[in-house]
C-alpha cells in the first residue's frame, strides 16, 4: 500500500423500507442491492468443509451486492501443485445465480487450463455447474471472466482449480493435459450474479447513479478529489501527492434529499498516526452541525485498518461529512457508509371535487382533490393529478388519480370528479370554446328549390356532419330542375333545429359553361316563411 496516495471512496448504503412489493424487492429493478449480513467468503480445498481453513481469503461479505460485486482483496491461494483449491461465496440463503464473474491471479509461469464452477444447496455437497476453458496456460494477473452457470438456486458458489491430473469421466477432463494449475494462482474477485427477489427487510437499496459526493475544507470546497454521482470518490487532481489531513478538512456525501441517518461506518486502508474525526450534517450544504450522542471511538489508531463504526442520535439532513478534528495525520479511506432510517412511503388521501364548466374547459389542481396526504417521515411531497382538464364531453361523474411522491416512493388514490355546466350559462354550451360541436341527427335539414317554394331533402347535403362553430359545408346541394335558366330563382337552404346565431356563410357554386351569375342573395328567416336579405 502506497502511503503517498490518498484514496477516498464513498459508498452510500440505505436501508430499504417498504418498496411496493409484499414480500421483497425485485433484483432486476435496481442497479445494485446490498445484503447487509449473512454473506461469507471463503477459500479452501474440497476435502474440508466450507471455511477459510488456512488460506488467505480476506473477504468483506457485508459489502456483497446482489447483482453487483463481492470483492475478496488478497483472496489469493498461494499453494499449488497436486492439490485442489477453490474460492467461494456463501449466500445468506439459496438464491438464483445465472453467471459468475471471476478475476484470477497467477504467478509468472503459472499454468491454468480450466476453471470449474461448482454449486451447492447445503454448503456440503457440490456439483459442477459450469466450466471455463483457457485453452492454454496463462500467466500474470487475469482479466474479468464472466462464466455462465446452470441457472438455479445455490447456497454456495465456488470456483475450483483442480491441481491433480484429470481423468476420463472427470467434469474437467482434458485428454493429455498436465495438472491444470501450478505456480501459485489465486483469486482477486468472485461475484455471483442473479435475479429473483430479496426480502425488503434485509436489503440496502440504492438507485445509482443518485448521490453526489465531494470533498473540501472549512473555508470552502477543495476539489482535491473528484466526485461522481454513484456514491464514490476517487483521487483527482493531486494523484500521488502526500496529503496529510489538517483540522477542518472533510469529505461529504450529498444524499440527494433530506434523510434521517443514525449510523456511519468509516473503512480505512491505513492511518499514519492517531487522529480524531467528527461527523456533521446540514440541510442546505452551507451550515453544518455536529451530530449528538456520537459514540466512541472517534479516534483512529496509528496504522489501523478495517472499519470503525460510529453511532449517534438520528440526524436529519441532506449533507453529511466526516471532519478531521486533530489533523496531522495521513489516512487512506476506501469507504464511508451511511445508514439511514427505513424510508416509509407517503400516504395519498383524496377527496372528491366538482368542476363547473364556463366559457372554456374546467381544471383542477392537486389541492382540489388532496384530502390530507402525508409522509410518515416528514419528507416533502410532490403531488400530481391526472387528468386535470375536463370539457363538456365529461359532464357527469368521472375519475382522476392523485399521486404523491417523496422522491423515491409514491402512493396513489382515485377520486371522483363531478363535471357540471355553470348554472350562469343556463345549461347552454358556448360554441366558440370548441373546434367543433356536432349537433344530434335531424338538427339540420337541407333544402333546395325555387322562389315558389322548396322541397325538403331535395339536396345532397349531409346534415349530420354539420359542425356548429366551424364552416358549414353542404356537399352538392343542387337544383333538381336543371331546365330553366335565367327566368327563375333557385335557392339552397339549411333549416336549423332552432334559431341560431350566424356570422358567415360559405358557398361553393357550380355552373355550366357560359352561365352568367350576377349576384347571390343570402337570406335569413326566423320562422321559415318570412325571409330577409342578410
How would you portray this structure in words?
By secondary structure, the protein is mainly beta. The protein has 4 domains: 25-196, Jelly Rolls (Sandwich); 206-340, Jelly Rolls (Sandwich), CATH 2.60.120; 353-431, no CATH class; 435-534, no CATH class. The chain has 1 helix and 34 strands. It has one helix at 366-369, and strands at 25-26, 32-34, 40-44, 65-66, 85-105, 114-120, 127-133, 144-161, 186-193, 197-198, 204-206, 212-217, 220-221, 225-227, 233-235, 250-272, 275-282, 289-290, 299-300, 306-324, 330-340, 353-357, 362-363, 382-386, 389-390, 396-405, 410-421, 437-438, 444-450, 453-456, 467-468, 490-496, 523-524, 532-533. Strands 12, 13, 16, 17, 18, 19, 20 and 21 form an 8-stranded antiparallel beta sheet that branches. Strands 3, 5, 6, 7, 8 and 9 form a 6-stranded antiparallel beta sheet that branches. Strands 22-27-26-24 form a 4-stranded mixed beta sheet. Strand 33 (523-524) and strand 34 form a beta hairpin. The termini are far apart. Residues 1-22, 52-83, 179-183, 204-242, 301-305 and 455-487 have low confidence and may be disordered.
- Counting structural domains, the number is 4
The structure class reads mainly beta
Q: Would you report the number of β strands?
A: 34
Largest sheet: 8 strands, antiparallel
Low-confidence segments:
1-22, 52-83, 179-183, 204-242, 301-305, 455-487
CATH homology group of the largest domain: Galactose-binding domain-like
Mean pLDDT comes to: 64
H/I helix tally? 1
What is the 3D form?
elongated
CATH class of the largest domain: Mainly Beta
- The helix content is under 10%
Give me the CATH architecture of the largest domain, please. Sandwich
CATH topology of the largest domain: Jelly Rolls
Amino acid at each position: 500500500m502506497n502511503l503517498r496516495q490518498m484514496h477516498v471512496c464513498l459508498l452510500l448504503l440505505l436501508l430499504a423500507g417498504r418498496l411496493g412489493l409484499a414480500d421483497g424487492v425485485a433484483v432486476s429493478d435496481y442497479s445494485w442491492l446490498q445484503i447487509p449480513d449473512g454473506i461469507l467468503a471463503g477459500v479452501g480445498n474440497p476435502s474440508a468443509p466450507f471455511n477459510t481453513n488456512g488460506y488467505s481469503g480476506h473477504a468483506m461479505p457485508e459489502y456483497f451486492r446482489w447483482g453487483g460485486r463481492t470483492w475478496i482483496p488478497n483472496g489469493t491461494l498461494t499453494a499449488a501443485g497436486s492439490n485442489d483449491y477453490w474460492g467461494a461465496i456463501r449466500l445468506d440463503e439459496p438464491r438464483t445465480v445465472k453467471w459468475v464473474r471471476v478475476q484470477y491471479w497467477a504467478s509468472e509461469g503459472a499454468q491454468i487450463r480450466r476453471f470449474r464452477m461448482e454449486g451447492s444447496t447445503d454448503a456440503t455437497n457440490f456439483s459442477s455447474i459450469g466450466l471455463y476453458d483457457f485453452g492454454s496456460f496463462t500467466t500474470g494477473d487475469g482479466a474479468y471472466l464472466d462464466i455462465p452457470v446452470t441457472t438455479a438456486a445455490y447456497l454456495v458458489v465456488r470456483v475450483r482449480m483442480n491441481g491433480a491430473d484429470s481423468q476420463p469421466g472427470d467434469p474437467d477432463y482434458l485428454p493429455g493435459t498436465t495438472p491444470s494449475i501450478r505456480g501459485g494462482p489465486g483469486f482477486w474477485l468472485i461475484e455471483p450474479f442473479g435475479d429473483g427477489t430479496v426480502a425488503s427487510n434485509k436489503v440496502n437499496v440504492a438507485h445509482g447513479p443518485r448521490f453526489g459526493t465531494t470533498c473540501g475544507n472549512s473555508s470552502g470546497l477543495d476539489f482535491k478529489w473528484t466526485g461522481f454521482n454513484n456514491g464514490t470518490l476517487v483521487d483527482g487532481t493531486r494523484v500521488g501527492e502526500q496529503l496529510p489531513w489538517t483540522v477542518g478538512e472533510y469529505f461529504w456525501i450529498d444524499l440527494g434529499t433530506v434523510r434521517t441517518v443514525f449510523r456511519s461506518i468509516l473503512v480505512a486502508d491505513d492511518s499514519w498516526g492517531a487522529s480524531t474525526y467528527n461527523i456533521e450534517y446540514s440541510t442546505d450544504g452551507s451550515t453544518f452541525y455536529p451530530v449528538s450522542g456520537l459514540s466512541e471511538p472517534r479516534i483512529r489508531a496509528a496504522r489501523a485498518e478495517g472499519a470503525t463504526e460510529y453511532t449517534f442520535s438520528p440526524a436529519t439532513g441532506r449533507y453529511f461529512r466526516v471532519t478531521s478534528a486533530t489533523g496531522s495525520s495521513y489516512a487512506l479511506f476506501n469507504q464511508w457508509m451511511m445508514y439511514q432510517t427505513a424510508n416509509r412511503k407517503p400516504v395519498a388521501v383524496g377527496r372528491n371535487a366538482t368542476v363547473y364548466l364556463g366559457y372554456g374547459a374546467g381544471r383542477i389542481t392537486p389541492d382540489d382533490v388532496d384530502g390530507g396526504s402525508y409522509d410518515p417521515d416528514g419528507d416533502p411531497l410532490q403531488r400530481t393529478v391526472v387528468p386535470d382538464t375536463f370539457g363538456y364531453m365529461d359532464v357527469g361523474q368521472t375519475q382522476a388519480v392523485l399521486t404523491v411522491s417523496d422522491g423515491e416512493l409514491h402512493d396513489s388514490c382515485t377520486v371522483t370528479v363531478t363535471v357540471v355546466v355553470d348554472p350562469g350559462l343556463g345549461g347552454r354550451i358556448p360554441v366558440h370554446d370548441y373546434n367543433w360541436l356536432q349537433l344530434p341527427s335531424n338538427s339540420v335539414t337541407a333544402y333546395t328549390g325555387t322562389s315558389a317554394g322548396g322541397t325538403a331533402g331535395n339536396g345532397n347535403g349531409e346534415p349530420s356532419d354539420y359542425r356548429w362553430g366551424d364552416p358549414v359545408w353542404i356537399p352538392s346541394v343542387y337544383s333538381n330542375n336543371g331546365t330553366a335558366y335565367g327566368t327563375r330563382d333557385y335557392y339552397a337552404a339549411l333549416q336549423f333545429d332552432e334559431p341560431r346565431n350566424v356570422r358567415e356563410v360559405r358557398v361553393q357554386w357550380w355552373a355550366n359553361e357560359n352561365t352568367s351569375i350576377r349576384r347571390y342573395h343570402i337570406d335569413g328567416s326566423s320562422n321559415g316563411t318570412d325571409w330577409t336579405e342578410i
